[in-house]
Amino acid sequence: MTDRTQKLRENPTSQSRWAEWYKVIYPKLYYAAFRLSHGDVEAARDLAQEALARFLDYRGIERVTGDRHAVSFLIKTCRNLAIDHNARAHEIPLDELADIEAIEAPEQPVEPGLDLEKMLQSLEPQDRELMRWVREGLSVAEIARKIGSSYTAVGVRLHRIRKALRESFGSV
Fold this sequence. Notes:
This protein is mainly alpha-helical.
């Protein structure tokens, strides 16, 4: 079987190779988009076209190694677009909150939230420092470089710290 992506990479300006590539790749992408859009034909077309547009805009053809990789790349892009689309569709418009003043206080007192500072004080000093860096927005890789440890070791340590906090203070 001919790998159209490889042929296209050899001559990316060839209209006929792009057309051939599109005829093979698009049906697979559309099928995935159709499934991701729960059978909505218009949404599936939009998702597939947006995924292809991003593939072209970000020079995806230079990143993929073959037809299977191209399809996989496009389907993942399509999935992410569907997730974003669904998240936006479920946003609550602010105009629905116009009657917020009419909401009365609950009869039962609201339980106070967990005190994060108190929780962190229960940790060892090194673990508190790690959590402080996480709260400041440092990535696991940045923390690993900062303390001279491996990415995996820091990730495991953070996982264990969070697990200990959950066990001590309930679902955090």
